Amino acid sequence: MSSESVPGTNTPENSTPESSVSGETLSAEQLGELKLAAARGLEAQERFVRLYADFENFKKRAQRERDDARRAATESVVTRMLPVVDNFEMALQAAHQPGTTVETLKAGVSMIQSQIRGVLGELGVEEIPAVGQAFDPSLHDAVSQVETSEVPEGQVVQQVRKGYRCRDRLLRPASVVVSRAPGAPSVQTEANSNPA
Predict the structure, then answer these.
(1) What is the fold of 19-123?
(2) CATH architecture for residues 127-186
(3) pLDDT digits 0-9 by tens, 59-81
């Protein structure tokens, strides 16, 4: 074989604007397209890095805003409760004073209870009605049943512990005693009689 250059090959004697990639030759147009694609890829990568940094900053800012909102809500509640704490402390001091009667202490505690209810009302907290209501498992927690013919079956006859909600959200169900018709099996009896 001679050492003469073969036409179309990229040798120093026969140099053309073509480049070799994995044994194949690229024209100047293809090389330009490749460089353009590489530039676009670099630009997309830089845009991604900027977007990622912006997203990380957004997450930090959102967390900071949540923390600030939580802190502001806590401060609002505590600020409203401080006068109640002050009144409790005054009631305790009054209890140690000579001449304080049980009636005056009851009156003071009753006023403090009214004050607490007022603060809770301002915050949207309300008591869940129970006695005399039909048992509602979404609002009431039945702790026991009692046989009675005086009220309809399934009605709340006693409240053991008050329940509360804040606007539409249940904070705590009311613990209640529910009526059952005389001779009717209790829910627990039915559950115990069914074999597992």
Answers:
(1) Hemagglutinin Ectodomain; Chain B (3.90.20)
(2) Roll (2.30)
(3) 999 999 999 999 998 898 899 88
